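Hey,
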Amino acid sequence: MPQHRELCLVTPLSLFFILFSLNVATAIAGDQNPFSPKGYLTRYWNKEVRNDAVGPTFLLSKASPLNAVQSASFAKLASENALQTKLPEFCSAAKLLCFPDLGDSLEKHVKDASFTGYSGRNFTNYGTDRLAGADSFKNYSLGENLPVDSFRRYSRDSVNHKDKFNNYAADGNVIDQSFNSYAAGATSGTGDFKRYADSTNVPNLRFTSYSDDSNGRAQSFTAYSENANAGQQSFTSYAKHGNGAPNEFTGYGTSSNVAASDFTGYSESGNGINDTFTNYGNDENNPTERFKSYGDGGNAGSEKFSNYRDKANVGESSFQSYGKNSNSDKVSFVNYGKSFNNGSESFTGYGKGSQGGSVGFKIYGFNNTFKDYKDKKSAKFTEYVADEKTSLASASGSLAKRWVEPGKFFRESMLKKGTVMPFPDIKDKMPERSFLPRTISSKLPFATAKLSELKRIFHAEDNSTMEKIITDALQECERAPSKGETKRCVASAEDMIDFATSVLGRNVVVRTTDNVSGAKGDIVVGSVKGINGGKVTQSVSCHQSLFPYLLYYCHSVPKVRVYEADLLDPTSKAKINHGVAICHLDTSAWSPTHGSFAALGSGPGRIEVCHWIFQNDLTWTIAD
């Protein structure tokens, strides 16, 4: 009995200490439950970082919004390889990038239809076997963040059916469109795409077996994917075995940034095919165009490329087995590849085995892989540039800087009080996402060898945008580090802390530019502070990668100077931002075609190059 009374006296005291400890931990975590991911991150920071610097405010803003119960529940599913069964709930609660699963197909319809303002629909088998009629898609998926549309087998085996896509998926972010077997076997009719995917970010557009075995059906792409950023378009078996089908691409990919286009088996074995590419890839930055087996085995076809990749920056074009084994095909390249900064063109097996055809190149830019064709009677070259005369140095200043935004790169001498300078668009254009708790991320596969598992978890179909997002990130993360570089991809805030402290030690500070005020205009540099006394130092920079959850590519950056600066409004002189800039002192290993040299007028190893830290990017340094 005495023992029982003693136990009763202790219990309230123990309860008091437990509640007191929880209250303290909650206060430290900024009113977060101490068992939540944010509460854990705060404790982890205090344990691993050995200084009195301001806490990880930015990292906390990106920490998982899951509560303790949700975190434990999804971690259990991950450990059981069952997370895919609750993917919509997981993506919503954890604030991830996930594409919605397509709903039921709108297969049945018997009359003309006008789809205005629609989004995220499944048009599989829509319009199959239609006789005449017209369907119009206007302002479809306009301004969507993650539009997913499927037009598989649309208008297949139709007769004289007209499809119009006007202003389709414009201004979207990370769009996923699939036109598999579109208009295959169709007779007559038209497919008209105007302002398709204009001004989109990371578009993935797939036309697989598009117009295969069609007869006399015309396809027109006007202002297709113009002003896009980092997208990919795939035309596989486009118009294969087609008969008398004219295809026209006008303004394709104009002014796009790092876009890729694949034309595989395009117009293969076609009869009387007439393809016209006008202003294809003009003013693009680092475009990649691949034409593999294009027009292979074709008969009496005509392909014309006018102003192909004109005024583009760098870039790569590959024509493999183009026009191979064709009969009486006519190919004309007018003003091909007149880039201000030379790229690469590869013609392998071009026109091999063809009979009675002709190939003409008029005002063809510099190329060193086309020697097999210069002396052939079947190929005519007018104003072919035999040596590299279109170098960056000979280009006009405005043209050379076409793809380098003012203020994106600058010299270290500009970082002084009173300097007026352009401030670039530093806004983060990636979809908003959050870190995963380490208890979940550590249980998920992250390797190319585990790609099938990742695709299953995130519901990524073959050749889908999500598959490309995953594979691109894995390839970048698995890439061997550059000389002198230490790198790691991190999926949790705790992983980022571990990497930064492993390189710099535990006395570290993390910085980023405060906001985007002043972007795309002029600013005045206010007070400037050199980190670590302005001495040459080492930093760890972390940049976002596109992935379902927040993923950062972090790498050590030796021989730099890091600065903080107040940024002022040029008129009122009021402080509008607080910027963080990093100056790379050793640029000897950089590519001669790096945009900084186009902007600043120099070359590798000859100058230092500075830039601002963009929104949601980070730089770590040793604390002052």
